[in-house]
Fold:
Amino acid sequence: MTNKKWIGVFGGILVVGLAAVIGIVAYVDPFFQYYEPLDQFPYLIDNQINQNPGMARNMEYDSILLGSSMTVNFEADWFKESGLNLLKLPFNGAYPKDISNIMEQVDCSDNELKEVYLGIDIASYTVGTEETKYPIPEYLYDQNPLNDISYWFNKEVLLDYILKPMFSGDGATDLSSVYNSQWWMVNFYGKETVLANYTPPEKTEFTGEVSDYTDKLLANLETNLRPVIESHENTQFTIFFPPPSVLFWYDYVQSGQLEVVIEEFRVCSEWLLQFDNVRVFYFANMEEVITDLDLYADVSHHNQDINRYMAECFVSGEHELTEENMESELQKFRGIIEEFDYEALLAEKK
Structure:
């Protein structure tokens, strides 16, 4: 066979191989760039940055759950009790820009939103208005098929998200519990574990201005949340502050920034309550929860029972924040954090 024929044969095999790879990736579509999941395929859904945009555009839902790792242990099935078909779209360590970015993908879908549930970690809302927690893979967000080559010929996509799941023997993916973290496992929780992994901070003096933080907070609310809320005037937004443990707030006590946090809660809540389609829930002052380290895997992340309780509160209205009760709820939080006996708790650290 002549060299020319060899080149032709090799070229033909190469083209067929490349076409096969594209076909497999496009058919299984593990990042859901083209359509919703195939029935019965055991998808590995563990990459929020890469998989959330496709799910937001192509899955069927009428409600979504947004937020950080503090929201991952909600179960979508719980919201069926309220007649909702909810999709979880959390981002670990979510910044306000991350919320804005994923809402742009939601708006590219054909779904009519009834409810948006958004967990806010108040400290994450003082970053730059254009800052994201992790770099964004633009080719998965821009819906431009011309740059999908980065998706089609990605070794990790083919091996880890298609071939390994295909031969794993697992059943179809449970979309209700996607992204559930290891923190739901019972052996990850307990006071001893939390204390063992906690280093108490030294006492320092706060020399900044509270307004330095609240100004950044307001900039993020105006830039990244206002357009979302106002462009979905027929959607109910349920926005909530999760309950990290007292040790999480002890860092703020030691740095002299507890007053900063309280003012951030106040400013953020007042801003949110100006909208008719927004409800606010404040769980940070649940004393029986935040003082019980046996409910936590670390200083921030509580067990799934607390997520379940919060979901029930969204229905019952318990812990809802209003203009009338806001100040008393914030003062309750202040009292718990200022009066807690940290010295006695830390004496148990081995």
